[in-house]
TrEMBL record:
The gene is fur. The keyword Transcription regulation applies. Belongs to the Fur family. Zn(2+) binds at C99, C102, C139, C142. This is Ferric uptake regulation protein. Fe cation binds at H93, E114, H131. GO terms for molecular function: DNA-binding transcription factor activity; transcription cis-regulatory region binding; zinc ion binding. Gene3D superfamilies: 3.30.1490.190, Winged helix-like DNA-binding domain superfamily/Winged helix DNA-binding domain. It comes from Neomoorella thermoacetica. Keywords: DNA-binding, Iron, Metal-binding, Repressor, Transcription, Transcription regulation, Zinc. One of its GO terms (biological process) is regulation of secondary metabolite biosynthetic process. Binds 1 Mn(2+) or Fe(2+) ion per subunit. Binds 1 zinc ion per subunit.
Length: 155
């Protein structure tokens, strides 16, 4: 984690941005919660415990900067909140399954669109640089709750 933090701090400096304590604590938050998709409010709630003087506006500005520098990716899951995750340049695409019941987001790594991307590029000459795939439905727990409710009235 420390090597990744150092590399990101170096990228900030190369882009002529200061590595402030607030930026560092926000970056550490994303490195410590690497599998989560955090909103600005969630980041704020995490970092204010370690950095009580940080403001929500600072968190928003920092997240926007980190997204602009391709350190974070902005994601919209259709729930009215922008979420962020660390960019993983070395990893292949991953996709998201969003539960409409509890809002939990699960990732899966199978990139089933790679052959489609190649076909589109060959046929059209369009150079695809990225894609996002989101599935909406119900996680196992919410689906089980729904089945319990619908089955309870049958006699």
């Amino acid at each position: 984690m420390k090597n990744k933090l150092n590399a990101i701090c170096q990228k900030l400096q190369q882009s002529e941005y200061k590595v402030t304590p607030q930026r560092q604590v926000i970056l550490k938050t994303f490195l410590e919660h690497a599998t989560e998709h955090l909103s600005a409010e969630e980041v704020y709630n995490i970092v204010k415990g370690q950095h009580p003087d940080i403001g929500l506006a600072t968190v928003y500005r920092t997240l926007d900067l980190l997204a602009e520098l391709d350190i974070l990716t902005k994601i919209n899951f259709g729930d009215g909140r922008t979420r962020y995750e660390m960019v993983q340049h070395e990893a292949h695409h991953h996709h998201h399954m969003i539960c409409l019941g509890c809002g939990r987001v699960q990732e899966f790594d199978a990139d089933l669109l790679e052959s489609l991307e190649n076909l589109l590029t060959r046929k059209t000459g369009f150079q695809i640089t990225d894609h996002q795939l989101k599935f909406y439905g119900y996680c196992r727990e919410c689906a089980a709750k729904s089945e319990d409710k619908s089955g309870s009235g049958d006699i």
